[in-house]
Amino acid sequence: MISFSHAKYVHIRLPEDVQRLELMGLFNAAKNKIKYLLKHELSDSMKKRLEYELERIERLLKDYKVPEEEAMKILKKEFPNLPLEKVKEWESKGYLDFILVNGKKYYYRRFVSNLLFLCKDDEVCLSKKKELESREDTRKSREALKSHVLEIINSGREGYIFPRKVRVRLKVSLKPRAVPAGELVRCWLPFPRVGDQQTDVKLISAEPSEYVTAPQDHPQRTIYFEQRMPENKPLEFMVEFEYTIHAFYRRIDPSKVELYDENSEIYRRYTKEEPPHIIFTRYLKELAYSIVGDEENPYLKARKIYDWLTRNLTYTYVPEYCTFESIPEFVARNLRGDCGFQALLFITLCRIVGVPARWQSGWYANPTQKGPGPHDWAQFYIEPYGWLYADISFGRRWRELDKRLHEFYFGNIDNFRTVFNIDIMSQFEPPKKYIRSDPVDNQRGELEWEGGNIYFDKFETQMIYI
Question: Which CATH number is 162-247+441-465's, of 1.10.3470, 1.10.1660, 2.60.40, 3.40.630?
Fold first, then answer.
């Protein structure tokens, strides 16, 4: 059975025979090759890497599940009268996200959205994007955020300001017969941390009524439940909580920035490598130092990295984080990824050049919307100012729309957030026995039973403002 620790070996390179078979789309052959290798004497790390790969393949195929015929129907529905030549053009430019599985194309489940993100030079795509951008709900949420950020900037206030009280209900529903009736299901739901910009966290209600909450400063905080699976019915876990979230704003004078005490706990902890994802590869080190050049001021180093990333990266949706070997390396080589991917590259590049940096994540919760959605960003540490914020994906987006907000998201943060995590790949409290559906982040809930982990496709997560 795959344990929690297996995910920490995902960065170890696979045997070339296995890699080649996967690149050819021969996943069954790759699995057979792995099973053959596992019969031999291997190091513990390679054994766990190969065992994890068997699980990773199954998870990857759940994301790339749209057969070519269905994908073409979806494209024709989204783009009426779309000529076949246009589809071939998009494919030749790498805009259509698919893999080969036994000789057939299977598309990523969000391939249309990624097409629109990547396709920046095509009238068909631009017309569709303009249509989506003009929707009233999109316009309202964008204007609400812009108004909020400009109010912060123009207020003349600094520090943790503009407190906002929020109440949310989070519910997870395990599908009927996902596990045998009568079996005990263990559930961890994300629960707000106390610290930094978030205060006054209160549990309003929970079902089941017996639960365990992790310590308020746990790096990936959760509330834990146990419940037995009913027969032919869904199994539900629910928590309702309230918290106060603050915006943060601070004007930084680069001339007052101090060099670090390299023996301090913060410096040692947040400038080190953390496999599998925060690794200082040769390419990432070369990239980091080429970006910062001969700059010695830590704040200006981080600013150069922020500017380079927001200038060069493209936002795209990605398959589940558990299917990637090295997230920062993927982003740096492909120049695309979602909010968490971009944040992890920022963190890794900062650490390489000696700027302490860490993860922060939870939800983005625009008050014009019915409910929040998962979101990730970063923090970096500057003496004597302390922890500052960097939201790369927001900064990239507002670079195109409003430079004031692009500037804001280097160092500062809005109050449309919920914070659950300040680290990646932390073990839960109480600990999870089997590998998580998302070993990196903690935003949607995690389930397991005695037979192993219960993957995302077996349950639904609902987040609602009260």
Answer: 2.60.40
